Amino acid sequence: MKPDIQDIGGAPVIVGAGIAGLMTALHLAPQPVVLLCGTALGTDTSSTLAQGGLAASLGSDDSPELHLTDTLAAGDGLCNESIARRVVEATPCAIEYLVRLGAPFDRDLDGKLRLGLEAAHSRRRVVHAAGDATGRELFRALLAAARRTSSIKILEGMTALRLVVEERGIVGILGVLRRDLCALPTRRVVLATGGIGGLFNDSTNPLTSFGHGLALAACAGAELADLEFVQFHPTALDVARRPMPLVSEAVRGEGAMLVDEDGNRFLAGTPGGELASRDVVARAISDQLAAGHRVYLDARHCLGAKFAKRFPAIEAACKQAGIDPAVEPIPVRPAAHYHMGGVAVDAEGRSSVNGLWACGEVARTGLHGANRLASNSLAEAVTTAAWVAASVAGTCAGWQWPRFPAMAPRRPDPSTIRQLVSNALGIKRNGKALRDAVATLLPIAVGERAAADPSLVALLIAIAALRREESRGSHYRSDFPSRANAALPSRLTLATASENAVALSWQTSERSC
User: Fold this and answer.
1) pTM over 0.90
2) 399-404: Cβ within 8 A, 24+ apart
C-alpha cells in the first residue's frame, strides 16, 4: 500500500500532544509546526491524569540549591547535576510563563501560590491547580493557547509507526491517519510521547502508554539510557479500574498514614515514614501485600471532612468505588507510574540521531537519575520544552522527498505481554525472571504481530535490568540487593533486529549525545 504523502513544507513534527508536546509547539511559534495526536486531544494522555504539581523553589525558606539537593538525593547517584541545576533554576520562570497562558494555580488568601509538601522534599515547594487536577488544568490552558496559535497544525487521529532515516538523519515519518497510511517529509522530529506504564497490569498511565516513542527512537538507531529505572507510585487506588486512579503523594504530605487491615502503621520505624522516597514506600507496601495483608491510606485524622475540598478528584474516584475517604481508610497498592529512562538527549534535547529530539517523560535528560523526586516530571517538561524548541528552531529546515516504505508495522497493542512484564519487571526483580522474559519477548519483538513494538521496549528494559547487577533507586534486584560502589549510567543502541536476534551496542559511561 503506497502512503499518502502530505506536503508540510518541511515543518518540524512533534509526536505527542500532552503537556511536553504542547509546550514545545507554543515555544516554536510563530514558526510553523505539526503536532500529532494518535487519539482525540486530551484522551489517553498521562498529562491529564497528573495529580501532582510542579516542584519549584518559590518559598521564602527555599532555594534552587535546596531543591537541587533533594533532587540529587532522590536520584541515588545517577542524576546529571548540571542538568538538574539548570532545571530547578528555570522552573520558577516556567511557572510564570504558564500563569501568563492562563494556568489556574491554587493560591492562598493573600494571592500567593499555595505550596504543598510531597515525599523526599525538604520544603513545601509543590504548586497545584484545582487541588489534585494539576495536569488536567495545565493541559486545558496549553491546549487553549495552542488553538489560538495559527502556526500550530494539529493532526488528531494520526499514529506515527516509524521514523524514516536516510544517511544517519531523519527524513520523514510514516504513520496511519485514521485508517490510511500517511507520510510526512521532515528533517526535524520531536518525540513527546510519554511513558511506559501501559506495559504493566497495574498502572496509573493510559493503557496506550507502552513506550511508543522509545520504539520509534530505537528503530531509528537512537541511543537509549537508563531503561531499567521504572518508578512505581506507592499509592494507587486499589480497584479494578484501569488506568488506576492515583492517590496523590500530597495526601501523605497532609499527614495521611499507611496502615494494614488492623490499623498498624508499618512505616513508623522507617526514616521519613510515609514521606520516604517512592521506591522505599512502594517496596514496603509490596512486602505487606506479599505477606497477605491489605494496605490502606488513612486520612481521617488529618483531613476528615476537609478531604473533598482539598482533593476533589481523588474523593470522586473513591466515591465511585464506594469509599468515603472522610470516614474510611483508602485501599491502595503500588502501580507503574513513571519512567526515568528514555531517549538519551543532551542539554538541548537532541538525540544521537540527526534531526531527532525528545522532550518530557520519553527523554532521559539526567534530571531524575535512578528515582524521580515527586513533581519534578512536570517541572522537567515545562522547562526543557523551551530548550528543545530553541534547538529545533535553530536547525536548518531543508528537506527532500524521501523514499517511504510501502509497508508499515501494525498499530501496536501491548495487551498480550502485560502479565509477563508485570511479573518480570515489577518492584522486585531477579535474574532468572529477567532472562526468561528476554527469551519470551525476543521472538515477539522481531516479529510482525501487534505486540512487536511493545515487546521491543519491554525487551530492552529487561536487558538493561539484567545487566544492572545492583539495587539502586527504583531498580531492585533480590539477587543483588546491595548498592554498587560505582554509579554508572547504562546506555544502549539497537543496531539491528532480525529473526530471533537483536544486536545492541552498550556502554556504561556518561557522555553527551
Assistant:
1) yes
2) 399/10, 399/171, 399/185, 399/186, 399/187, 400/171, 400/185, 401/5, 401/185, 402/164, 402/166, 402/171, 402/172, 402/185, 403/166, 404/3, 404/5, 404/164, 404/172, 404/174, 404/183
Confidence tier at 47 by pLDDT (50, 70, 90): low
DSSP label of 354: B
CB contact at 8 A, 344 and 222: yes
**DSSP-assigned beta bridge partners for residue 332:** 237
Query: Residue 500: pLDDT above 70?
Result: no
Enumerate the domain spans of the chain: 233-334
Q: In what order do the strands lie in the sheet with 501-507?
A: 363-364, 342-344, 223-225, 491-498, 501-507
Distance, in Å, from the CA atom of 394 to the CA atom of 351, rounded to the nearest integer, reads 15
Give yes or no for a contact between 340 and 278, defined as CB atoms under 8 angstroms apart: no
pLDDT score of 43: 61
Q: Under CATH, which number does the domain 233-334 receive?
A: 3.90.700.10
Say if residue 510's pLDDT is above 60.
no
Q: Identify each DSSP E strand in 151-209 by its residue range.
A: 152-156, 158-166, 169-177, 180-185, 189-191
- pLDDT at 406 > cutoff 70: no
Spell out the alpha helix ranges (H) of 311-417: 312-320, 376-393
Rounded Cα distance between 355 and 54, Å, is: 29
Kindly give the pairing relationship between strand 223-225 and strand 491-498. Answer: antiparallel
* Catalytic residue IDs: 278
pLDDT one-digit tens code per residue, 186-228? 999 999 999 999 999 999 999 989 999 999 999 999 999 999 9
pLDDT for 288 equals 97
